[in-house]
């Protein structure tokens, strides 16, 4: 009648042996609490160690057409792959939702373009069906949002089960009511403040933040120049971490709250290419394969 959780620990989580090499750790102690009259059982498997270089994921929300026009060619030239938060109900994908949120009504990438980048190894993840402001929507409405989004990603865009089980929350936020609904449809949720993951998925209401995703913060790329974007990668290198950078439009105009200047973006890609020995450009699928090569 209980649930089985996979617990993952990092050296940084264990202050008593901080700085040690995982390969030198011979034992880890666990403790478990229980309610009176109940029995707790624990099974400990083999100690598994994983190591990898610092990583950066390039995240593009709303499938803006400028990403296909100005970011994708540069990234493809270097063999870089990105992640696109797809609003599956955008009108140009053959749908006609009630979307009334500024530039989201503008033209976005076509279905064919999304499939093209997916075939190049890009992750297509959910950014919901209509990008709703969740705080004034019912539970039933949000369930339909998530189900329609996952269905379209898998059936129409051919997104993998892994990538389509990842959600980028609109407006970079959510509350506990919405989080409980999300847990039925997604294995990981990303907002401005980091990943929350429960892989493999647990039933609604059994949320557990203790996983490697929790300390992953999504930095804001929009409105920043090349130096700031490069700085995010340098921080990841210095801290030996994985970081994501959230962007929307890549345009030949000065940067503002929803875009990055194309010249700054190119300079950022040039820097990442020149520093491949220090940091990997990855999708979430890439990371899962690094961490769990056997599934």
Give short descriptive properties of this protein.
disordered N terminus; alpha/beta; about 300 residues; 3-stranded mixed sheet
What does this protein structure show overall?
With 295 residues, this protein is an alpha/beta fold. Helices cover 29% and strands 15% of the residues. Strands 1, 2, 3, 7, 8 and 11 form a 6-stranded parallel β-sheet that branches. Strands 4-5-6 form a 3-stranded mixed β-sheet, with no helix packed on it. Strands 9-10 form a two-stranded parallel ribbon. β7 (218-220), α5 (226-239) and β8 (242-247) form a beta-alpha-beta unit. α1 packs parallel to α6 and α3 runs parallel beside α4 (176-185). It is globular and about 60 Å long. The model is unreliable at 1-6, 11-18 and 198-215 (pLDDT under 50).
Counting H and I runs of at least 4 residues, what is the number of helices? 7
Quick check: average pLDDT? 78
Shape descriptor reads globular
Task: Give the terminus-to-terminus CA distance.
Answer: 25 Å
- The residue fraction in helices comes out at 25-40%
Strand content: 5-15%
Protein structure class? alpha/beta
Low-confidence stretches: 1-6, 11-18, 198-215
Rg over CA atoms: 20 Å
Question: What string, H for helix and E for strand, traces the elements in order?
Answer: EHEHEHEHEEEHEEEHEH
Task: Give me the count of strands.
Answer: 11
Main β-sheet description: 6 strands, parallel
